[in-house]
Amino acid sequence: MPQHPNAKYGYHLGQGGLLYLVVTALMFGIAQLSQANLLFWAFGLMIGALVASCVVSWLMLRKLEVQRIDPAFAVAGEPLILRYRVTSHHRTMPVFALVLHESQDAQRPVWPTAKSCDESSSRLGGTPTGWAMHIGARQTIQIEAVCRPSTRGELRLETIAVSSSFPFGIMRRWFTVRQDAAVLVYPRLMKVNRGVMTRLSTAHPQGMRRLDRPGGQEDFFGLRDYREGDSLRAIHWRRTAHTGRLVAKELTHASPPEIMIALDLRPVGTATPIPPEDIECAISLAASIVCHAHLRGHRVGLVTLGVRSQSFPLHHSLPHRTRILESLAWLDIASSSDEQPAISTTPTLIITAQRGASAAARRGAGAPAMIDIGDAESLISPADNVDQLLRTHTVPLSRRGTARREDEP
Amino acid sequence: MNPTPLFRRLVYVLVMLGILAFSVAERDPAMLFVAGALTILSWFVVEGPNGKPLPGWMINIGALGITVWLARELWGQPGALVIAMGHFVTGLQVVLLFGRKTSRDYSVILVLGLLQFIGASVLTETLIFGVLLMCYGVVGLIVLVLFHLHTVSEQVRETTLRVTERKGRILAPVPRPVFGRGCGSDLRTAIFAVGVMCLAVGVGVFVLVPRSAIIRPNPYLGGAISAESAGYSNLIRLGSAPQQPSSRDVVMHATFTVNGRPATPPHEGWYLRGASLDMYDERGRLWLRGMRSSLSDGEQRMSPEGTLLHPGVPPGMVADITLRGGITRQLFTLNPTRSVTAESLGSILYNPSDSQVTLPDPWVGTLQYSLEAPDMANLTKPGSPQPWMIPPSRVYARGWRVASAQVSQLASEALAAKGLARNADEPPSERDILIAQTLADYLRTHYRYSLNAAAPRRDRDPIFTFLFESHEGHCELFASALGAMTRSLGMTARLATGYRVSEYNHIGGYYVARPEHAHAWVEVYCGTRGWVTVDATPPADESDTDQTAGVFAWFTQLYEYTEHAWFSSVIAFNEKTRREVLGGARTSVLNTVAAWVQVTSEAVINDVSTFLSNMQFDVVSLSALVFFGLGAGVGLVSLVRMSIVRRRRLIALHLDRMPRARRREMARQLRFYLIMLDMLEQQGHIKPVWQSPFAFAQSLAQHDPATFGAVLPVTEMFYEIRFGGRTPDRERLRWVDQQLNVLRQALLRRRVPRAAVPAHA
Predict the structure, then answer these.
(1) What are B69-86's pLDDT values in tens digits?
(2) Of A14, B221, B316, B747, which is most buried, counting CB atoms within 10 Å of its CB?
(3) Which residue of A133, A140, A180, A398 is the best one to mutate when testing the B interface, meaning the one whose CB has the most B CBs within 10 A?
(4) Are strands A171-186 and A73-75 parallel, antiparallel or unpaired?
């Protein structure tokens, strides 16, 4: 009894199987012609191998349960590991050479080869294929398959194709299981040069430390009465001695450097529309700077100009960074908008998709820095380790339900 | 567990087995030595501790050299196509072993190995090759399974590398092969099971595939037993020394059944005649078949029931003969033979005057046929005429020209010593048997058997030298001398060559003929008694009828019996055997089933009747018995149903992996969740097995929050109890009941036709 009621089952005779059938037919012809009994034996064994190939693979795939462990997120251009949990409900029979891959066609999945490349596999950067050499009876194992999403946005995974051609690879028995899932793919993340980040963060006067709030651990801010629960180290002993009551000192908060990014996707003047790849590059640049700024402890905010999108005020937290990335991932470049962002903070960095815009822009004192994608090539380089850039990531906020992190505002 | 290292080792073993098998088939030790040494060398060169494959250009040059070698062989021996192709395939395999091997190269090596074995199967049919074939099959099975695992691994690796590679950099490590516990033992068991399955299907196909009635001889099968080494010749050359048999290979298997009972030793030997030689050429000093006899051969079509040679001969004896892989144009028959049955043959050439059976074309390979003959014991009784016998012409097999006066005088003196005499003008009669036997006795007692007799002088006839000078010689000289003496007395006599079969295999229950059993004797025409076989060779020439003596005799017989079984059941398997096997199997199965049904039904009826007769039933007890039986049946069905339902509940509650001790208590606590699933299922919302309870609840809630809003809290309660280890108190249970009521009411309100509800499974 199949574990997936709606699974589609079938056999696939590949090129190797076809060749085998031809050789078997040839063997039968030679045996009939020569009437040599040894060749009849060989022919019988070849038929036996064919039957065994069909029967064994059919038996093995009968009681398998496959479930994709849906990934939390992905980054465009970076490997995404898809994990599958496979459980064998056979009492005694093991399973060998089990291959899984993602497929769009549930009726007739295409066995992934060097030439096979459908729409889904191009979106995934290839066909994610995983395999298990052996699954024992009543055992559950986890199989990994690697893909590389090519573009940001929502990546839909639909059908899991499971197959095995054990023991001889002549006939491939397969079944498909429909399990819809959507993975959010963040924009491509690049490595931003350290000097650039330093320049961007110190370019704005407000990026310096501010001393206008008490309750921190930095410089001296003022004195107040001692409150129960204050540390003994906070007591200002000299003032206490003068006044005769306990007086505590207050220290200032450190204000980290901040970057307010304005992602400008509008064409300058009446120029021709910006090519989509340039827009994608600008989005990727913005996402990369957001990640680097977060890593350096900067408060970061984002406004998007030219397309309909959410604006983010200056803040530093992992969920905030994740929200910005999600927003950039969902950005629909086809939905143009002239609305002004409802954030009063002045941008410290303008990223524009228009090539050459930064050179043409007027630079004055206090003017925000401007980067166009023509400059980007000198500022960024391929990231060595995206995981390090993202650090330990949380589940995307859009899918976390009611769970909240402590540092979330 | 990584199958690749074992696979790579076994590929070498497989190639070595292929080389060994082809060398055995071709009987070419030089090839075994050279190719085997190169294969071993390739292992050390490529797979050794510091091994490194040879560069591709060297492999290409080697392949080119092998191709040139093939062309040279085909040019030199155009007929030996299979042997040349075998050499080519072997050479190519060895060359490929020296290079870097991808999956494609391995598959090429395996396919070449298959071709090599097909070629070897054409060249030989010996038991040793059969054993090698079996070993090759076993190793090949393991190699193919491992190769499949290796190939799948490589393919997945390549597919993954294509995904993860960017400008020469591997962005993510390729996932390693995943395998569960007990992989090695499971793999061994699987290979064994697959092998048994292949063998079973192979046997079935082998038996079921119909064979052609006419088999074409295999021109390559000369290597097993050549005509020279078989010891038999269809003419006798007296001018040269006889050749000693070089081997003890079995030439022929024969079983004799007399009046339905198998003939076993002791027996003086069976004379299986091949050629009938009626003419002596004094110049060439050879006995040969006369031109008139050769021209009188008539072609007779073979029929499945047997071709009658002498319709009047009474049946009494059957001889089943298997000729082993030599080249022959002769069918060895008995004197006289009533009929011949050979499934493989289309026609034979038969001459009634000399009873010689020949084949239209030379036959190469194993040939099975049956002879029907009269019972020899009845035939040799005095006064048993053979009216079917065609009398020979007056000039056939008569007259003697070599020193006829001296030979006649010698024969007369030998007869006179026994008080006998014969007139040269006397017609053939039954008395000639006694005269021929007397002359044969004379030769046996006065002459010595020797294979090492001196070569005859050029100026003297060998028969004259034997009779009057040397007084020693081999069977051909004894037969020639008897022929000369009988003919000098006016009798009609011819020589016959063939095998005198007397060696018996006690394990297999059949007679064996070897090259050393090749023999020559005399057939004398005795009027109404027909042609009578007379052997003048002294017993020194006769091989032992019982060869059980000796340390290794039993093992030798066992080996030969195995070989016989191999030949009779595999090599010589033909349409007739196939029909017999199928018929026998059908009969056996039907008989077994019928016997089982009969025995079982009788036993059951007996038991029931005995039980009923022992029990005294009244109406009440009978009713109670029926009631009890029905109750037991209903109870059994209920038990099975309960077991199935319980199993399904455990799976639905994710309790199937929980220890048995906790299952019952947990199932009782989570009963509310099953109630909810039942309610949903009635509305068409079936939870898929692969979907977690939370995902299922979430999908329902997203689909219709108003209706399925209560599913989420109930599911959360399920999680609390099942995975959180929380025990529900009375208040919580009451709350759950309320939620279920809410859900029930919502479902009732919904009243959507079941077909319209989208399926979540």
Answers:
(1) 988 888 877 667 888 888
(2) B221
(3) A133
(4) parallel
